[in-house]
Amino acid sequence: MRRLDTFAAISLVFALCFSAGFARAEDTASSKKQVEFLAGGLPERLSSIRALLRENKTDVATAQIRSVTEVLSQIGRLTKEIRAAEPGYAPPLAFDFDATPARARQAEYTEAKKLSLAAAKAINQDCQAANEALRKAKNRQMATIAISALKFTVENAPGRPGGELTEFVVEGAKRLNGYLMDKYIAEPITGGLSEVQLLKDNFVSIADGAKLLKSCEASREKAMAIAKSMDAEGKKLAGAAEAEKAWQDFRWLLAPGSGTLKVEVVDVQLRAFKLMLGDVEVTPALKGKTIEVKSPVVLSARVQDERRKFCVDKRAYAQKTKTIILEPGPGGGPEDSLVYRSSQNNARSSWTIVEERFDWSPSSNGSLEDDPKAVSGAYWKLERARMRWTLKARPGEQVNVFVKGAIRWKLDQVLPGGSKQQEEKNDGSATLVLKVL
Fold it and tell me: How many whole angstroms separate alpha carbon 74 and alpha carbon 38?
């Protein structure tokens, strides 16, 4: 009777543990769906914020920015819960923390201010040049008037020039020049009524020159006003930019290392096979070593059969001898095809891949999904060669995957005595066992 009670108790504990484990798995799956939903709505929110900022609706945009912070906070909380069960989990968050809308808008205003100040500086240089030109024009006209006055005085003075008489003439010219300056130049410039033309090669009146100078000054002031306006608009965004700073607290969601997983390679078994764990090639030499991989892990496979080895070796041999001439093949890499001919006769051969496919078997604490990627130049049918491996093992637990690959080659050969076609099938396999640390 006690044995039955003991068995019942053990069964109950097992049932409770199983139920708890199942409940945790359900909660994790539910949390992932929530993260996907929340992350999926962020691009639209960011687009709305940028539109509001363009319309200068700063207050509404700031409120939207704070709502994005709330969403990131929820994603962060859910991510921590998920990583308790799946340490390497990385949320599907397409979010650039360096491209914040308010800061980007501020940068636009800063650039506009910079351009406006540069324009004001250039206009100021023009104003200075115009002012100098006008000054020279007035001086030239005064000099001409002074010469005419001197000539008039000398011509009309009694006696011969020289001595005291000469000094008198010069002083008289100075007084006359002063009078003409006040009467015909100074008054018209200030009143804008002069029709006196500048001297030779100048076709603008002094009054028109003064007007142009005023216009130049007005343009400079306008450019400075724009610069001040851009500066003010940028400062108005200070609140929005400050609100955006809260987003930086969630960089850990995508920061380098946040989506990485540290594992120990427990076992590696390879037979005519090449297996990549992320960017790391899996080899027996990795046994017992600790490595870091990005999560979800990407597994890439290739069958490394004797035919592929033959193609690679043949290419290498062709580089050393003149008896074989390589021709461009349809493959995406040196091992994917081999098209060659003899330098002695018209014999021509080609080995090309018809199909390469893989079957994967993960342990129960890991899951796989097809993650196809276009292979440049690939011409053959490639099935399940690249997989996303989600590790659900807790720290201290082991997770494994087994994969078997099959490859089919086709030979086309043209010989002096006729042609030949045949197919060749090969396979390979790999087993990888990891321990999550």
Answer: 8
Using alpha carbons, list the distances in angstroms from residue 336 to 254, 299, 355, 419, 430.
Answer: 36, 19, 11, 22, 20
Task: State the DSSP string of 307-366.
Answer: HHHHHHHHHHHHTT-SSEEEE--SSSSTTTEEEEEESSSS-EEEEEEEEEEEEEEE-TTE
Q: How far apart are CA 393 and CA 261, in angstroms?
A: 11
Using only C-alpha atoms, what is the Rg of the chain? 43
Domain boundaries, the chain: 2-95, 110-233, 260-436
Give the DSSP letter of residue 255: S
305-353 pLDDT, tens digit per residue, is 999 999 989 888 888 887 888 887 777 777 788 888 888 887 888 999 9
Q: Could you tell me what percentage of the chain is helix, strand and coil, using 3-state DSSP and rounding each to the nearest 5?
A: 50, 25, 25
User: Buried b / exposed e across 73-105, counting CB within 10 Å, b at 16+?
Assistant: eebbebbebbbebbbbbbbebebeeeebbbeeb
Distances (CA, A) of 86 to 17, 77, 247, 361, 366: 18, 14, 24, 19, 10
CB-count burial class (<10 Å; 0-12, 13-18, 19+) for 257: exposed
Side-chain-side CA neighbours of 269 within 13 Å: the count stands at: 10
Across the beta sheet with 273-277, what order do the strands follow?
280-281, 273-277, 297-303, 386-391, 366-370
401 φ, ψ to 5°?
A: -145, 140
Q: What are the structure tokens assigned to 296, written together?
A: 């979800």
Host H or E run for residue 408 = strand 398-415
For 344-392, the pLDDT digits (tens) are 887 888 999 999 999 999 999 988 888 777 665 677 888 899 998 888 8
Residues 271 and 309: their CA atoms lie apart, in Å, by 14
Give the residue carrying structure tokens 């929005």: 240
Which positions ≥6 away from 223 have C-beta within 8 Å? 116, 117, 119, 120, 123
Strands (DSSP E) found in 189-289: 260-271, 273-277, 280-281
The C-alpha angle with vertex 99 and arms to 96 and 101, in degrees rounded to 5, equals 125
